[in-house]
Amino acid sequence: xxxxxxLGLTIGMSAALLLAACGDDTGSxxxxxxxSASIGEQVDYKxxxxxxxxxxxxxxxxxxxxxxxxEGWTLQESSTAGMIGTLEQAIRNEEPVIVTGWTPHWMFSAxxxxxxxxxxxxxxxxxxxxxxxxxxLEKDLPDVYTVLDRFHWEPEDMEQVMYDAQNGxxxxxxxxxxxxxxxxxxxWTKGIEQGNGEKVKLVSVPWDxxxxxxxxxxxxxxxxxxxxxxxxxxxxxxxxxxxxGEGDATVAPWLPTTHQxxxxxxxxxxxxxxxxxxxxxxxxxxxxxxDIDSIEDLEPKE
Length: 302
Hints:
Layout: H1 2-24, H2 39-42, E1 46-48, H3 55-66, E2 74-76, H4 80-92, E3 99-103, H5 107-110, E4 113-115, E5 127-134, H6 137-140, H7 142-150, H8 155-165, H9 170-180, H10 182-189, E6 199-204, H11 208-223, E7 227-232, H12 235-244, E8 249-250, E9 254-255, H13 260-266, E10 270-287
Helix pairs in contact: 1-4, 8-9, 8-11, 9-11
């Protein structure tokens, strides 16, 4: 995990430098010179995104196409770490910025942010995160299946692990959460017998939110005597791995919008155990100090 975060810092710094370079095009770093400029002009008509393969990336491209007032805008694909680095740099300088974001995420605990309203609903409303397993898992590893079927927590639980991990690592943060939430974990593991070192492949995506949930599930199953390997992949590969049996389970699918295309493609070859977390949201996110509330408030590039 430390390697992941170090890489994120490097990418974030590069993204921040890119944002600064865009700001230099105005000829001055003095914010007073930009007071008369539109928000579009101030952010160079760019939405700062994340990985090309992410569900929110596809939804963001759809949003740019379906809102006529976003004509001429572009989605600058980056990485989750790069997006956060750009956001942090803008907030430190109290500059405008628009990023693709989602909850649960620790950035909402760290900064005062808001979602822009999406009247057309292109980015989707509230979503859930589901648990999906391969066929025959219940027969092959019934106790693992039962724990995964019972696994359910709240957005604030996930955000706590994510936030604590920023000052350490996800394994330590997840272990601390488990220790402090023994009553909830006991509900997942009640009556479960100890395993005998059976291997479990838990497939996920490399987002902080899913690293948090996968880390918690890994430690819970490890403590029950299983050997759990967490495998981070792109969303398309995540569903494919479960459908082909190369992976045993995932607690990362965002439904019914973000990962719907992947879900529909493989739904006949997977087992959906239902929601493990409810109340997620995708959208365009801005710092609260920006005087804008809706995607429709943005103007096209002339």
